[in-house]
Amino acid sequence: MDTRKELQGHLLAFMTIFIWGTTFISTKLLLESITPVEILFLRFAIGFLILLLAYPHRLRIRERKQDLYFAAAGLCGVTLYFLLENIALTYTFASNVGVIVAISPFFTALFAHLFLDTEKLRVRFFIGFSVAVVGIILISFNGSNNLQLNPLGDILAVLAAVVWAAYSVLTKKISGFHYNTIQATRRIFFYGLVFMIPALCILGFNPDITELTRPNNLFNILFLGLGASALCFVTWNSAVKLLGAVKTSVYIYLVPVITVITAVIVLGEKITGVSVLGIVLTLTGLLISERKA
Predict the structure, then answer these.
(1) Which of 77, 162, 207, 229 is 20 to 30 A (C-alpha) from 107?
(2) Which segments constitute the EamA domain (predicted)?
(3) Would you kindly state where each structural domain of the chain is located, as residue ranges?
């Protein structure tokens, strides 16, 4: 691979994860006024409109079979992942969900090995994965004794990790169709919003406009729609196109790291020695997974 393109892919992946790692605070603040499914639908509806304005050209699918990949990516990466993660949070600890979802690179590696000819399993990936997971556990539980099993919530979190891995492999497959990345991401968003409609009917969709237009809430929902959805899904899909599904997915290890650092800066939370050790181990695992043979 061209070194310049590889560096570009790493920068795009890091930028994406940096923004995704800060979305926890925005979502946490919004949950005081609107429900998780309302946040989910609004952020991707805004993201869809932004991508439409950014590149207002219709995507013409060459083969009907290719559209099935877009539909599957929308179902996995938009609808199922976020619904499963949000529902899991209502049944188990946030720390449990944080650790479990962060193992999605493991499933990504397995799926890529099975379904993508160009991406095979490497020993260094599993070594890096093991080191990073220990670090993520230390960050998430911060040396406390809160680790408890909550079967339903934890199983839903595992399913969330699996469907995100499927999304990563699907986007790598879609990148091989050589469509414009903004158009491709917009189509994924479209299918994600379509598949979200049954959930809206079941869980209800009635956001309070007065609450939504309050400056803080408006800023946070726009941040999630413009930054975390429209921009980040384009940059993530571009990174997958340049680096591959496996190398890009390991950047997910950084989400807990960025969340902890952001919480210290924005919310004034204290960082402990256990968290620092966890951050060091997580970064070490990332470097091991990404290093060349």
Answers:
(1) 229
(2) 9-140, 152-288
(3) 3-290
